[in-house]
Design a protein that fits this description.
Number of domains of chain A: 2
Structural class of chain A: alpha/beta
Radius of gyration of chain A: 21 Å
Chains: A alpha/beta, B alpha/beta, C alpha+beta
Number of helices of chain A: 9
CATH class of the largest domain in chain A: Alpha Beta
Shape of chain A: globular
Largest sheet of chain A: 8 strands, parallel
Structural class of chain B: alpha/beta
Mean pLDDT of chain A: 95
Number of helices of chain B: 17
Strand content of chain A: 15-25%
CATH topology of the largest domain in chain A: TIM Barrel
Strand order of the largest sheet of chain A: 8-9-10-11-12-13-14-15
Order of helices and strands of chain A: EEEEEEEEHEHEHEHHEHEHHHEEEE
Mean pLDDT of chain B: 93
CATH architecture of one domain in chain B: Alpha-Beta Barrel
Helix content of chain B: 40-55%
Largest sheet of chain B: 7 strands, mixed
Oligomer: heterotrimer
CATH topology of one domain in chain B: TIM Barrel
Chain lengths: 362, 469, 86
């Protein structure tokens, strides 16, 4: 498990501060860069515009190019961007208007607006970085979010965003704005759990969610948006994936990919594990059907968060390595596995006692 | 609730196939047809139609938008010019019985590109802005002018980011220099293998010594270049076709598993020998036998085989945007994505158009490389190139999967307004689509295995071919 | 061989599409003779091998198709407009 926080000597600041860490003076390009001046075992000393910035690290990890967020009076900084990793996500809000049964990031009432800091951090990201935007529900702060993306796009046209959203807060007026932002700039990760409203609404804990989502998906289609349609497989919907495949083909052929996902055993997902987790290593029938139907019709399907050995051989090519590096682990049985490097492994909080029954080295 | 227009076609055993303009389909019965035609659809009917993507509740809702998207995706929009067929010579060292390209004998002067023509072609290619370019050399026998092939390749590699070169050769006489050229990493070989060796000799080489030489060269090509770089096509005379199993064997034994059956094309030289008015029915009967033979073969073979065009049609049924074959597009806009440059520098929208012009039927040329492209004729043709509102096609269940081929119609009938069901193009495609639907609704395990392979999926799920009762 | 015509009664909601259906039926089935009455057609054929029932069915199908075409033409036109312009 990679720690996304760093121990830091508290800074004399009154506002949250964004700093990019650099190993050499030569690589400093902006007023937001801090240069490494001394490394003493686990303590690193940086020069930030004449001020001293002290960090503590475990091991020999390099922070060159990383972007951190420091809060007044706090002894830990958040690693917003790790320059050597493809998995960087900004948690833009913890507020949410749904209560999904498998939620890995349960919602909170309070919202701290850090969009300006996030905008700055994004402009300091490595070339062609893709930055995740997640929550809660990011579109609860739609105006701030769109402004942030527009601000970044004008300075760093190479940066892409992967926005995870329930897609329910879009209106027709947003089409023009999305088009002008540029359709290739955002990949929308939108969850849909079933083709019927009552199953979907029950899973996301909100009446009327499905109807709102249908409207949102039509708006995204109109805007030419790139959509990654996400479906977590659970006991509640495992027998309805064929219906969902038909629904996606007839109504949403425009999607970039249909991501069929395994649950994460954290947050509400952990709480509801016994009544929700579907052991797809012993019953893959519903997913196989969904893949067969969709692939024949030209819809791209991908399996996210499935260890390769839990997937039948004929369908293994659809399983991608998608678990973020900072929350990924492998099991003992993986030591002898030929497919380890291709496999995405397990979530850090995977518990084999309540997990897949049928696993084994390939 | 509003239902999008449904086309219908009776099938066997009282069943009826229904399809819409976006390519969605299902089977039902004549009772449903009666209810549909008389506006007496039941709640059960409506629920099915809505679920299966044939209806919407409010204009602009997700069901409507989804249909509109699928409908739009069925329409072909030409891309930039990035595929050019070059005919540097009409001279050929073979005299195949069905030769459609109006060849001349190997030593006939005056049928090659002059130096000026070559310069003009290079200048023409130089004016194209595209990151990738595919050049296909045809003839006659293009390897008779290896010097031109080399010059074109050298120019293209300096001009375009990514290039691919296909040499359509009879592999009859292959010098060391030609082998070296064919061995280059961006060069691919396309040749003819008319089934078993006996048929090949009957139609192309006529003498056993020549046949043997060809077979030796073909096998050498596969061994030296790899079967990924060599493709072969069989040309079939439907009145005297080789047994399907012999074709499958001739190809699969050489590591070639995609077999594209082509009927003898009665143009040019072929007209002198073959009856140009042959109907499509002989071809259709043979083609369906061939598919049945493939299904048997695939049931037990280690490596499955396919008939390329059949698979192309199957995929056009199942998905939108499958427009890779130039003969099967709607609208079939020609003269944009690819062009043909003849031995005299004239430009044509398709190879067929070149042949139609050469036999003197119509002049479908688009200018030449000296004076530049002129598109008046082709523009007029393209105006008629769609099937969406054609008085016959609009009622056809296969309209969304089909296309038009106006040049083929011109070549056979001298006009483009013959009722579709009387055209060879329509008869052949209806037969293919009928066969595909018959297979998709079959319970036969052997059939379902081949369908899965050809559709590119582990299993051909029953949901892909829905019923409504 | 049929020389005695078969009579096909037509439901009133289809009469508006009768002439279009006749045009199409005639060029699809040139060997079939067709006579029109107020709300019926008479079909007969010396050259066509098909039964009365089959001919009636073919004609009805032409009629259905013309009705569906006419009823749904505004929808089809809206689709094309949505794709090419609007």
């Amino acid at each position: 498990m990679i720690d996304l926080r760093l121990e830091i000597d508290p800074l004399p600041i009154v506002e949250p501060l964004v700093v990019r860490l650099r190993d050499t003076l030569a690589s400093c390009e902006t007023e937001h860069d801090a240069t490494l001046v001394e490394a003493n075992g686990t303590r690193l000393e940086y020069d930030y515009n004449g001020f001293s910035l002290g960090l503590r690290r475990r091991g020999n990890e390099s922070f060159d190019g990383d972007v951190i967020l420091v809060f007044p009076g706090q002894r830990t900084a958040h690693r917003l961007i790790r320059s050597a990793s493809p998995h960087n996500t900004f948690l833009v809000t913890e507020q949410c208007d749904q209560l999904c049964v498998m939620c890995s990031q349960p919602p909170k009432r309070h919202h701290a607006d850090l969009f300006s800091q996030f905008a700055l951090a994004a402009t300091l990201a490595p070339l062609k970085a893709t930055i995740g935007i997640s929550g809660g529900e990011p579109l609860l702060h739609k105006e701030r979010l769109f402004s942030m993306i527009e601000a970044v796009a004008s300075i760093r046209p190479d940066i892409r965003f992967h926005v995870l959203s329930n897609g329910q807060h879009l209106s027709r007026d947003d089409v023009a704005r999305l088009v002008s932002i540029g359709t290739e700039r955002i990949l929308w990760g939108i969850p849909l759990y079933a083709a019927d409203g009552s199953t979907h609404d029950r899973i996301v804990g909100k009446d009327g969610a499905f109807d709102k989502l249908e409207r949102g998906l039509a708006i995204l289609m109109k805007a030419g948006a790139l959509v990654e349609l996400r479906t977590v497989v659970m006991q509640q919907n495992k027998d309805r994936l064929g219906d969902l495949a038909d629904f996606l083909f007839t109504r949403m052929s425009y999607i970039e990919v249909w991501a069929i996902m395994q649950m994460e055993r954290v947050g509400y997902g952990r709480m509801n594990w016994a009544s929700s987790f579907q052991d797809t290593s012993i019953d893959f029938v519903g997913i196989a059907k969904a893949i067969d139907i969709s692939t024949a019709r030209g819809i791209s399907v991908a399996l996210y968060n499935f260890p390769l050995c839990s997937v039948p051989g004929q369908y293994r090519e659809f399983a991608l390595s998608t678990i973020s590096d900072w929350k990924r682990k492998y099991l003992d049985i993986c030591d002898k596995c030929d497919s380890r490097t291709a496999c995405g492994g397990f979530f850090e909080w995977y518990s084999h006692n309540e997990g897949f029954a049928s696993l084994g080295a390939l | 609730m509003t239902v999008f227009p449904l086309k219908f076609r009776p099938a066997a055993h009282g069943q009826v196939l229904f399809a819409d303009d976006a390519g969605g389909f299902f089977r039902s019965d004549e009772d449903f047809l009666f209810r549909y035609a008389h506006d007496h659809l039941t709640d059960n009917d409506n629920a099915f139609l809505l679920r299966n993507g044939h209806a919407f509740e409010e204009a602009g809702d997700l069901a409507y938008a989804g249909f509109e998207y699928r409908f739009a995706s069925r329409l072909y929009a030409p891309g930039p010019l990035d595929y050019v067929i070059l005919v540097p010579t009409l001279r050929c060292n073979l005299a195949c019985g069905y030769c459609q390209v109006s060849r001349v004998n190997e030593h006939t002067p005056g049928f090659d590109w002059s130096d000026e023509t070559l310069d003009a072609v290079i200048s023409f290619l130089g004016g194209i802005t595209t990151p990738k370019m595919k050049i296909e050399f045809q003839g006659g026998e293009p390897t008779l002018r290896l010097d031109i092939l080399k010059k074109i390749r050298e120019f293209c590699r300096s001009r375009f980011d990514r290039c691919e070169f296909v040499v359509c050769t009879n592999l009859q006489e292959v010098s060391d220099e030609v082998w070296d050229f064919l061995g280059l990493p961006d060069v691919f070989v396309s040749t003819s293998l008319d089934g078993d060796v006996a048929t090949h000799e009957l139609q192309r080489t006529f003498k056993s010594a020549r046949t043997a030489k060809f077979v030796e060269n073909l096998d050498a090509a596969i061994a030296r270049l790899g079967s990924d770089k060599v493709s072969a096509l069989p040309t079939i005379d439907a009145r005297r076709p080789p047994e399907p199993a012999s074709i499958i064997d001739a190809y699969t034994s050489r590591g070639m598993h995609s077999i594209y059956l082509r009927p003898v094309n009665f143009q040019g030289f072929a007209r002198k020998r073959y009856d140009a008015r042959a109907s499509a029915s002989a071809w259709n009967a043979y083609h369906t036998r061939f598919i049945d033979e493939l299904v048997e073969h695939n049931w037990t073979a280690d490596v499955p085989a396919e008939e390329y065009y059949f698979v192309h049609c199957l995929r056009r049924i199942l998905r939108a945007g499958h427009n890779g074959h130039v003969d099967l597009r709607n609208p079939n806009i020609v003269g944009h994505g690819y062009v043909v440059i003849d031995h005299d520098g004239k430009i044509y929208p398709t190879d067929e158009a070149r042949m139609v012009s050469r036999v003197g039927q119509f002049d479908l040329s688009m200018g030449d490389v000296f004076k530049g492209m002129s598109t008046a004729t082709v523009d007029a043709l393209n105006q008629e190139a769609s099937n969406n509102f054609h008085p016959d096609c609009v009622h056809c269940t296969y309209q969304a999967y089909c296309g038009v081929d106006l040049v083929d119609d011109l070549s056979r009938y001298g006009r483009i307004d013959v009722p579709k069901h009387e055209t060879d193009f329509c008869q052949r495609h209806i037969a293919i689509f009928d066969k595909i639907f018959e297979m998709m609704y079959s319970d036969d395990a052997k059939v379902r295995k081949s369908l899965a392979i050809w559709a590119g999926v582990p299993n051909f799920d029953a949901s892909l071919a829905r019923w409504h009762q | 061989m049929q020389s005695i015509p078969t009579r096909l009664e037509l439901p009133s909601e289809f009469l508006a599409h009768l002439s279009d259906a006749i045009v199409r039926f005639r060029y699809l089935h040139p060997g079939v003779m067709l006579q029109v009455e107020e709300s019926a057609v008479l079909l007969s054929s010396d050259k066509d091998e098909r039964s009365d029932r089959e001919l009636e069915r073919e004609f009805l199908f032409c009629l259905y198709r013309q009705k569906v075409y006419a009823d749904t033409l505004p929808l089809r036109s809206a689709l094309i407009a949505g794709v090419t312009g609007a």
